User: Which sequence fits this backbone?
């Protein structure tokens, strides 16, 4: 009888634990916003002093020297940044290693000096918390990761590819030929679709998720939405899909400023975008089922003091980078700001190392598809060895028994940091040039002899914005028409430059 009672108590306890575990997955909507080119110390490092001492931030004693032994220490007077610091694979190698054989984080000043005299000061500055008030509020209210790394020590495009596919398919930079074809790897969007879950891409200029070839297929064309037309409406109506991806504005125009945080754009506009996204979600009937993740693709050449992980990092899929480095994808990039928001998160949470799945797992961009797989219990395999290894953060939303009711309804107002007028006539950044090339592929212009060397080089920011807007509009419209005419959903509309113009008509 005693044995039977013990068994009953054990069974009851086991069922209770199982029910609690099921209740600990309250998230039905994940929202992801990836901004551009800022390091953790640059954006959030000074919050250690005034927001939360548990954060692995800065004290001001973090310094770098140049070859003449001139030392520059980290300061809190970052404001408007122009020009853009170096963040190519080669530049990051110098920043991270300096003259050492392990990541000493000692080469930022020297690398910046090789580009411009003034840049060495720029890369050693961080923002006062009051100058990024939205982040100061969210860090104190929700969760911040102080050990989240970009996936490779390199530029934007490879890192953005990792966010949704856990690999860059061997790219350590922007590969023009691969762009025209589209990157072939499976994505978390495919996994969600195969498991019957919905997703949406809410874009403002162009969905950079179209760098993945699969995302150009007709079956996904109705997943793309203009952010301004649809995001607030879907949130208000309680119709946000399982995964919502928000893409910021990448071009800086008068009256329509860029809000992606890429230098030379004012981070105040990025703050306004985050405020708008948060307040939209906070007012949605789906708020109690929502998890918002904000991160940055890479560090943009700005200093960070935390050593980048360089041992036991798995190569995602056996690919190796190009000559002369033949990178094995066996170390991570520089730490970037990452904030997580949900009413299921305890106030003032700081996340450092994950609990597995291996003893040396880290939080990095592949943590996003890895966590989405866990939250939605996807039967699809992991995308690569990297997301199978990356730390997941699903457990953070399982620490409370019920959603918080004290989350702020509105966030602080944001003051501009830029004192000069927007210059629509300036040339394109490297990333903007890549976006123009993607638009040229969608438009069919990559068949022209001038692609890709001339496309975008002669454009200013305003012209590029108009070209990209029209190309995306035509591609989406043509794809929807093809679907309505009964075309195979696995097909990709192949636009031809001879059939297109720069007008808004197809």
Assistant:
């Amino acid at each position: 009888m005693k044995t039977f009672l013990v068994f009953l108590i054990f069974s009851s306890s086991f069922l209770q634990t199982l029910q609690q575990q099921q209740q600990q997955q309250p998230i039905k909507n994940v929202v992801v916003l990836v901004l551009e080119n800022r390091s953790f110390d640059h954006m959030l490092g000074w919050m250690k002093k005034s927001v939360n001492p548990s954060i692995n931030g800065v004290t001001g004693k973090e310094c770098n020297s140049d070859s003449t032994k001139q030392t520059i220490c980290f300061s809190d007077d970052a404001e408007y940044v122009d020009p853009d610091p170096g963040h190519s694979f080669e530049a990051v190698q110098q920043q991270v290693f300096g003259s050492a054989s392990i990541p000493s984080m000692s080469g930022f000043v020297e690398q910046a000096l090789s580009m411009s005299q003034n840049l060495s000061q720029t890369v050693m500055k961080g923002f006062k918390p009051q100058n990024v008030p939205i982040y100061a509020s969210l860090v104190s209210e929700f969760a911040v990761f102080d050990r989240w790394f970009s996936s490779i020590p390199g530029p934007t495009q490879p890192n953005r590819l990792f966010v949704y596919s856990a690999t860059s398919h061997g790219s350590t930079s922007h590969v023009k030929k691969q762009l025209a074809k589209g990157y072939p790897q499976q994505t978390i969007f495919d996994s969600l679709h195969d498991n019957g879950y919905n997703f949406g891409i809410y874009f403002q200029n162009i969905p950079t998720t179209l760098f993945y070839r699969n995302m150009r297929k007709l079956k996904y064309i109705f997943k793309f939405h203009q952010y301004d037309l649809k995001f607030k409406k879907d949130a208000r109506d309680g119709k946000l899909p399982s995964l919502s991806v928000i893409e910021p504005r990448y071009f800086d125009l008068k009256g329509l400023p860029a809000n992606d945080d890429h230098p030379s754009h004012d981070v105040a506009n990025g703050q306004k975008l985050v405020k708008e996204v948060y307040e939209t979600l906070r007012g949605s009937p789906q708020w109690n089922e929502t998890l918002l993740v904000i991160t940055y693709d890479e560090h943009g050449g700005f200093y960070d003091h935390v050593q980048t992980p360089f041992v036991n990092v798995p190569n995602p899929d056996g690919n190796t980078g190009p000559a002369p480095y033949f990178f094995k994808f066996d170390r991570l990039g520089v730490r970037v700001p990452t904030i997580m928001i949900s009413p299921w998160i305890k106030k003032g949470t700081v996340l450092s190392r994950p609990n597995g799945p291996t003893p040396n797992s880290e939080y990095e961009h592949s943590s996003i598809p890895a966590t989405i797989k866990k939250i939605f219990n996807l039967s699809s395999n992991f995308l690569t060895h990297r997301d199978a290894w990356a730390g997941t953060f699903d457990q953070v939303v399982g620490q409370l028994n019920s959603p918080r009711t004290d989350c702020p309804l509105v966030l602080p107002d944001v003051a501009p940091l830029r004192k000069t007028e927007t210059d629509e006539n300036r040339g394109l950044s490297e990333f903007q040039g890549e976006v123009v090339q993607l638009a040229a592929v969608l438009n069919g212009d990559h068949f022209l002899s001038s692609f890709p060397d001339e496309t975008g080089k002669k454009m200013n920011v305003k012209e590029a914005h108009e070209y990209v807007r029209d190309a995306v509009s035509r591609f989406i419209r043509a794809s929807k028409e093809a679907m309505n005419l009964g075309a195979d959903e696995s097909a990709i509309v192949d636009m031809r430059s001879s059939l297109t113009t720069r007008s808004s008509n197809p």
